[in-house]
Specification:
heterodimer, A: alpha+beta, D-Maltodextrin-Binding Protein, domain 2, Dipeptide-binding Protein, domain 3, 11-stranded mixed β-sheet, 22% strand, globular, B: mainly alpha, MetI-like fold, 13 helices, transport (chain A), SBP_5_dom (chain A), signal (chain A), SBP_5 (chain A)
Chain lengths: 517, 314
């Protein structure tokens, strides 16, 4: 059904007369919501960064820049941070931006109903000193706190009160999932989920516009070949991602540029590590046994996946963050080698000499070639006697299914929003509690990691911090909490004459787009 | 083309058919003969797929990912294996996948037509023979359904069925849901034809006679009227078969049909379409050519049958 509606969307798009500086871009995934606190995923946060703004933001080179805060400084004795807010900023509906909105956005984004709550787990309290000064008091010294809130977007208190959107609707719907009222450089003009989303420049924006757009239309196109055809025919100005198999062709095609990079996203397999039984109810859950998880990690032939499905344009991953990222553990850079006999022996040792059957959940429109990779994993696990049922689904229902524990094993891609190895520990490795381990769907739990996380967050000495991060990386590898597969490449296709800026977090900012005259 | 294989065990029946009016028409229609030959080859290939196919594409443990994207008739750069029609992204042999995929396409097509035929004939007989309210209700429902494109009805049924089946059975159920969805979208034609024919037949003397000796209504419908309305049904069934195969391919192409681990021809075409721009044409071209050959020859056969059974064209 979704595919059909996309086809319809595309024809509608083709039929529209285009304005001189209208920009049309497409991606495989529609941002699920327009609520900046409801879903902590790149498609949502990246899109909403055009509409909403945080106190700080990231520049073209990922450095932290002032946004709604003009400056910030640590509080005395490492007690937190003080932010000085920008004056004279208005929301899209005209109401003024003040400290009240910051406090309100804190309350909203840190509530248990929000998907962003873990960003605020180090926060003890938030206090407005006056209309334009906010103090964020942390439970312990937190040197990277400003980095960790670059995607915390500020919402107007009056607007969310008036529209009864006081709390984010993670899997449901409310006014804020379909409407937006930020301070950012673009206004949300039309929102038609799954069909198209239209933005127009905010003429009252406080910043200097670097773009020359008058209108920007986003269309999700789930079928990669359709997206490439749309780009080549000029119906679309930019697609993200370009299917890996078409990268070589687009590089040679006239009128189109291919922009390559490496995303900071690690693609990995996760396991159900809490349910006593398999999803099918056919028996006890073998993934509770570390040896079974290790057998899986030894049976997945990552070099073959990279060679064929990823066509040599991705790097293998050994841990939850890619090499080169702050906090990456050089000491744990080795991946398990492919060893089918070893894997079979481990399964036999764990009591499964004849293997077992289970379900693998997977997206089919979220990561590059995700469904193909999962299919290949199914074939590879079949070699060690594991009979895998693959359930590949659109990302629209995926997180809901994972939250409902409807999986034995699943595919996940993680890109650390803070550009630091501490980020995945907080979301993926910490035991799931109120505001930590919120994306740890499998329920992996290790007391040592839970104890190390606050220490890592408050450690100021770089080498002591790295030692702790090394320890966590070692534990995660040892217990096979996840099976990291590879680092996803970034491939954008852009029509000639359009300049865009590609950031390694795969955020696409309209405010840096320039169309040729 | 004239040395049509003779059936040695029952020469009498075959000879009678060969010499009948239909046989005469067949002997003088080269298109029909070629079509029949193509259909027979494809159906036999599908039926005996496990014996012919070099691989079992449904057994993931036999796949080697490094064989992925092998070109047709060329040894793979890493493994040295050669595949007649190349391999897809998972290293699956395209030739084997087509044979197995055709089984699913044919199975879904035949079962869907059988279902549509049963439903259509039953409702058509009731409407035509009983008339009155039953006729009005059945035929208005049919009219309403005719205003929807068949593929839309099939998608609707498929969507609902997917919603109500538990996820663990979804893959196994997918084939039967396809049969049901396509069958349900196709019964109207059968019902209309049978109703028309039944209305003509019911005023004939033999029906009146059957009624006089006290046969029940269902017996009259099934034993007396049905055999006399079957020849147009046969024509529709043949043409419907081609349409059902295409409908299945369309649904699978749209991603709502056969699951990727059990690909039908439509699923294969959908997978192959993703590699069209990147130069791996064989993943798309061979399944598409097979679907074309299958649907076209069944359709041509249906066309010939319609003309041959039409007394006005003789």
């Amino acid at each position: 059904m979704a595919r059909l509606s996309l086809a319809v969307a595309l024809t509608v798009l083709v039929g529209t007369t285009t304005h001189a500086s209208e920009f049309r871009w497409a991606s495989t995934t529609d941002p699920q919501t327009m609520d900046p606190h409801a879903v902590n995923s790149t498609p949502v946060l990246s899109f909403l960064n055009n509409v909403y703004e945080g106190l700080v933001r990231r520049g073209k080179d990922m450095t932290l820049e002032p946004s709604l805060a003009t400056s910030w400084e640590p509080l005395e004795n490492g007690g937190g941070w003080r932010f000085y807010l920008r004056e004279g900023v208005t929301f899209h509906d005209g109401s003024a931006f003040t400290a009240e909105d910051v406090l309100w956005s804190y309350q909203r984004a840190s509530s248990v109903l929000a998907d962003t709550a873990s960003w605020f787990s180090p926060v003890a309290a938030m206090v407005a000193k006056d209309d334009y000064t906010v103090e964020i008091r942390t439970k312990a010294p937190n040197p990277i706190f400003p980095d960790s809130i670059a995607n915390w977007m500020i919402m107007d208190k009056g607007w969310s009160d008036a529209n009864e959107a006081q709390y984010p609707a993670k899997d449901g719907e409310n006014y804020a999932t379909l409407h937006a009222n930020g301070t950012g450089p673009f206004l949300l003009v039309e929102r038609d989920p799954g069909l198209s989303t239209v933005l127009e420049p905010n003429s009252d924006w406080w910043g200097e516009a670097e773009h020359n757009l008058t209108r920007a239309t986003f269309t999700p196109i789930q079928n990669p070949a359709t997206a490439v055809a749309a780009l080549l025919s000029g119906d679309i100005d930019m697609i993200n991602p370009v299917p890996i198999q078409d990268a070589a062709r687009l590089e040679q095609a006239p009128g189109v540029d291919l922009i390559r990079g490496t995303e900071t996203r690690v693609i990995m397999l996760g396991f159900d590590q809490t349910s006593p039984e398999l999803l099918s109810g056919a028996g006890p859950n073998p993934f509770l046994d570390e040896r079974v998880r290790r057998a899986v990690s030894m049976a997945v032939n990552v070099p073959a996946i990279l060679q064929t499905i990823m066509r040599g344009s991705a790097e293998p991953a050994s841990q939850l963050v890619p090499a080169g990222l702050r906090g990456y553990s050089e000491a744990n850079a080795a991946r398990p080698d492919l060893d089918l006999d070893g894997a079979r022996a481990l399964l036999a040792e764990a009591g499964y000499p004849d293997g077992f059957s289970f379900e693998l959940k997977c997206t089919n429109d979220r990561y590059l070639n995700d469904a193909s990779v999962c299919q290949a994993v199914v074939a590879m696990l079949a070699q060690i006697g594991l009979e895998v049922t693959l359930d590949a689904m659109p990302v629209r229902n995926y997180w809901t299914e994972l939250r409902a524990d409807n999986f034995d094993m699943y595919l996940l891609g993680w890109s650390p929003g803070t550009f630091d190895a501490e980020h995945p520990l907080r979301f993926l490795a910490h035991t799931p509690v109120a505001d930590l381990g919120t994306w740890n769907f499998g329920g992996y739990s290790n007391a040592r990691i839970d104890a190390l996380l606050p220490l890592i967050q408050s450690e100021i000495d770089e080498s002591a911090r790295q030692a702790m991060l090394d320890e966590t990386a070692a534990i995660l590898q040892q217990e096979v909490a996840y099976v990291p597969l590879y680092v996803q490449p970034l491939l954008w296709g852009v029509r000639d004459g359009i300049t865009v800026t590609q950031r390694p977090d795969n955020f696409f900012m309209l405010r840096w787009v320039n169309l040729a005259d | 083309m004239t040395d049509f294989p003779t059936n040695q065990t029952q020469p009498g029946r075959f000879r009678r058919a060969w010499n009948s009016d239909l046989g005469w028409s067949f002997r003088h229609a080269p298109v029909a003969m070629v079509s029949l030959a193509v259909v027979l080859v494809l159906v036999l290939a599908a039926v005996f797929a496990p014996l012919i196919a070099p691989h079992d594409p449904f057994d993931p443990s036999t796949l080697n990912l490094m064989n992925g994207f092998s070109k047709p008739m060329e040894p793979n750069a890493f493994t040295g294996d050669t595949f007649w029609l190349g391999t897809d992204d998972q290293g699956r042999d395209v030739f084997s996948t087509i044979l197995y995929g055709m089984r699913i396409s044919l199975f879904v097509g035949v079962m869907a037509v059988a279902f549509a035929m049963t439903l259509g004939i039953t409702l058509g007989l009731i409407a035509g023979y009983l008339g009155g309210w039953a006729d009005t209700i059945i035929m208005r429902v049919a009219d309403v359904q005719l205003t929807f494109p068949a593929i839309l009805v099939a998608m609707l049924v498929f969507g609902i069925a997917k919603g109500v089946t538990p996820p663990e059975y979804r893959n196994e159920m997918a084939i039967w849901v396809l049969v049901f969805a396509i069958g349900l979208s196709d019964w109207v034609q059968f019902a209309r034809v049978v109703r028309g024919a039944a209305m003509v037949e019911k005023s004939r003397d033999y029906v009146a006679a059957a009624r006089l000796i006290g046969r029940s209504r269902s017996a009259i419908m099934l034993r007396h009227i049905l055999p006399n309305v079957l020849s147009p049904v046969l024509v529709i069934a043949t043409i419907s078969l081609a349409l059902a195969i295409i409908a299945e391919a369309t649904l699978s192409f749209l991603g709502v049909g056969a699951p990727p681990t059990q690909p039908s021809l439509g699923t294969l075409i959908r997978i192959g379409q993703g590699f069209l721009f990147s130069g791996e044409w064989w993943i798309l071209a061979f399944p598409a050519a097979t679907l074309l050959a299958l649907a076209l020859s069944v359709n041509l056969l249906g066309d010939w049958l319609r003309d041959a059974l039409n007394p006005r064209l003789r």
